[in-house]
Write a structure and sequence with these properties.
The protein is 29% helix and 24% strand. The chain is an alpha/beta fold and 228 residues long. The longest helix has 14 residues. Bound molecules: cytidine-5'-triphosphate and magnesium ion. Catalyzes the formation of 4-diphosphocytidyl-2-C-methyl-D-erythritol from CTP and 2-C-methyl-D-erythritol 4-phosphate (MEP).
């Protein structure tokens, strides 16, 4: 089975509120999208990389680090899951190939963390995702902001990407989720809904998702480079 990469990069970055979608902000002279793509392309055995772009914004095609012949572009959709599904459908591969889905907005992914995920998934023969155990005590609130319960922290994780699944199973799971009208914010959610087991593999704090304005400086710090 081959290994393929997918990067959803069709979002608008509304919470970042920058002058452009956050995947086109720069660290060390390269866009977040280029940095994320470069890491996936360095994964041993990566056969192809499909990047989903916003239909009205194809500036990615001209970026210097996105000229690798393994890269192809596709048009993303309304929600992240739509963009991922569009990319999966554009892959030339077989059902039992593996696909690694990684957010453009996570430029700090250490190559070693990606390799850890791949090793664990291939060894177990079932899908998995990078995730971080929670450090804070977690409260569930009612609508008035009063604490309803304190959750069992030992069993709670923050999902990251990459998320790695069989191409055929993930495509079917995302199609099923879309048909059922269930909104899913990551691939694992779709696989869970379809009844598949998903392994949690320890990720990295460096692999934060750039979401709010203050996150860019933190991502730059982890990368040992400057914003811009
Ligand atoms: N994404 C996508 N297609 C969408 C929405 C999001 O490909 N319709 C991508 C983003 O470009 C990003 C990743 O999915 O790389 C993670 O999503 P998120 O952090 O939510 O990015 P945005 O949707 O762009 O940001 P926001 O939710 O703040 O608008
Ligand atoms: Mg979003």
């Amino acid at each position: 089975a081959s290994l393929h990469g997918v990067i959803p990069a069709a979002g608008t970055g509304s919470r970042m509120a920058a002058d452009r979608p956050k995947q086109y902000l720069q660290i060390g002279g390269h866009t977040l999208l280029e940095i994320s793509a470069q890491t996936l392309l360095r994964v041993p055995g990566m056969a192809s990389l499909t990047i989903a772009l916003h239909p009205q914004d194809d500036r990615a095609r001209g970026l210097p680090l996105l000229q690798d012949p393994r890269i192809r572009f596709t048009v993303g959709g309304e929600e992240r899951a739509d963009s991922v599904l569009a990319a999966l459908l554009a892959i030339t591969g077989t059902e039992d190939d593996w696909v690694l889905v990684h957010d453009a907005a996570r430029p700090g992914l250490p190559l070693a963390a990606a390799q850890r995920l791949i090793e664990r998934v291939l060894a177990a023969g079932r899908g998995g995702i990078l995730a971080l155990p929670l450090v804070d005590t977690i409260k569930r609130a009612d609508r008035e902001g009063l604490i309803e319960a304190t959750l069992e922290r030992d069993r709670l994780w923050r999902a990251q990407t990459p998320q790695m699944f069989r191409l055929g199973e993930l495509t079917a799971a995302l199609q099923q989720a879309a048909a059922s009208g269930q909104g899913v914010t990551d691939e694992a959610s779709a696989m869970e809904l379809a009844g598949h087991p998903v392994q949690l593999v320890p990720g990295s704090p460096a692999n934060l998702k750039v979401t709010l304005p203050e996150d860019l400086a933190l991502a730059a710090w982890y990368l040992g480079a400057k914003e811009g």
